[in-house]
Amino acid sequence: MQDQDYLLTTRQVAKMLGLAPYTIAKFRMKKIGPKYFNMGKNTVRYRKSDVLAWLDRISKENRI
Protein backbone atom coordinates (compact mmCIF):
# COMPACT_ATOMS: atom_id res chain seq x y z
CA MET A 1 0.00 0.00 0.00
CA GLN A 2 1.39 3.38 -0.96
CA ASP A 3 1.63 6.21 1.56
CA GLN A 4 -1.15 8.14 -0.24
CA ASP A 5 -3.55 5.19 0.13
CA TYR A 6 -3.41 4.87 3.92
CA LEU A 7 -6.72 5.19 5.69
CA LEU A 8 -6.77 7.80 8.44
CA THR A 9 -9.08 8.32 11.40
CA THR A 10 -10.87 11.60 12.05
CA ARG A 11 -8.37 12.30 14.82
CA GLN A 12 -5.42 11.70 12.48
CA VAL A 13 -6.89 13.98 9.81
CA ALA A 14 -7.51 16.67 12.42
CA LYS A 15 -3.91 16.43 13.62
CA MET A 16 -2.63 16.55 10.02
CA LEU A 17 -4.64 19.74 9.37
CA GLY A 18 -4.09 21.36 12.77
CA LEU A 19 -7.82 21.29 13.56
CA ALA A 20 -10.00 19.75 16.25
CA PRO A 21 -11.62 16.39 15.49
CA TYR A 22 -14.97 18.10 16.12
CA THR A 23 -14.24 20.48 13.22
CA ILE A 24 -13.54 17.56 10.87
CA ALA A 25 -16.82 15.94 11.98
CA LYS A 26 -18.66 19.22 11.27
CA PHE A 27 -17.08 19.36 7.80
CA ARG A 28 -18.35 15.81 7.24
CA MET A 29 -21.90 16.67 8.38
CA LYS A 30 -21.96 19.77 6.16
CA LYS A 31 -20.44 17.81 3.25
CA ILE A 32 -17.64 20.35 2.81
CA GLY A 33 -14.66 18.25 3.88
CA PRO A 34 -12.58 15.57 2.20
CA LYS A 35 -14.13 12.33 0.94
CA TYR A 36 -14.60 9.72 3.64
CA PHE A 37 -15.72 6.14 4.13
CA ASN A 38 -18.21 4.79 6.65
CA MET A 39 -16.61 1.52 7.72
CA GLY A 40 -19.34 0.55 10.15
CA LYS A 41 -21.14 2.03 13.10
CA ASN A 42 -19.15 5.02 14.40
CA THR A 43 -16.15 4.17 12.21
CA VAL A 44 -15.12 6.76 9.62
CA ARG A 45 -11.91 6.68 7.58
CA TYR A 46 -10.28 9.06 5.13
CA ARG A 47 -7.87 8.11 2.36
CA LYS A 48 -4.76 10.28 2.73
CA SER A 49 -4.77 11.04 -1.01
CA ASP A 50 -8.36 12.35 -0.72
CA VAL A 51 -7.39 14.65 2.15
CA LEU A 52 -4.43 16.01 0.17
CA ALA A 53 -6.60 16.48 -2.96
CA TRP A 54 -9.21 18.33 -0.88
CA LEU A 55 -6.50 20.60 0.55
CA ASP A 56 -5.21 21.32 -2.95
CA ARG A 57 -8.71 22.11 -4.20
CA ILE A 58 -9.61 24.48 -1.38
CA SER A 59 -6.25 26.23 -1.57
CA LYS A 60 -6.84 26.93 -5.28
CA GLU A 61 -10.40 28.13 -4.61
CA ASN A 62 -9.17 30.57 -1.97
CA ARG A 63 -6.42 32.16 -4.07
CA ILE A 64 -6.68 35.87 -4.62
Largest sheet: 3 strands, antiparallel
Number of β-strand runs: 3
| Main β-sheet, spatial strand arrangement | 1-3-2
* CATH-defined fold name: Arc Repressor Mutant, subunit A
- N-end to C-end Cα span: 37 Å
**Mean of all residue-level pLDDT scores:** 91
* Total of DSSP H or I helical runs spanning 4+ residues: 3
Please provide the ordered H/E string of secondary-structure elements.
EHHEEH
The computed structural class is: alpha+beta
According to CATH, what is the class? Answer: Mainly Alpha
What percentage of amino acids are in beta strands?
Answer: 15-25%
Unreliable runs, pLDDT <50, ≥5 residues? Answer: none
Rg over CA atoms? 12 Å
User: So, CATH architecture?
Assistant: Orthogonal Bundle
User: Domains counted in the coordinates: how many?
Assistant: 1
Globular, elongated, flat, extended or rod-shaped: what is the shape?
A: globular
Helix content: 40-55%
Considering the protein shown, what is the CATH homologous superfamily?
Winged helix-like DNA-binding domain superfamily/Winged helix DNA-binding domain
Verbal overview:
The protein has a single domain (3-61), classed as Winged helix-like DNA-binding domain superfamily/Winged helix DNA-binding domain (Arc Repressor Mutant, subunit A, Orthogonal Bundle), CATH 1.10.10.10. Helices cover 50% and strands 17% of the residues. It has 3 helices and 3 strands. A 3-stranded antiparallel β-sheet has the order 1-3-2. α1 (10-17) crosses α2 (21-30). It is globular and about 35 Å long.
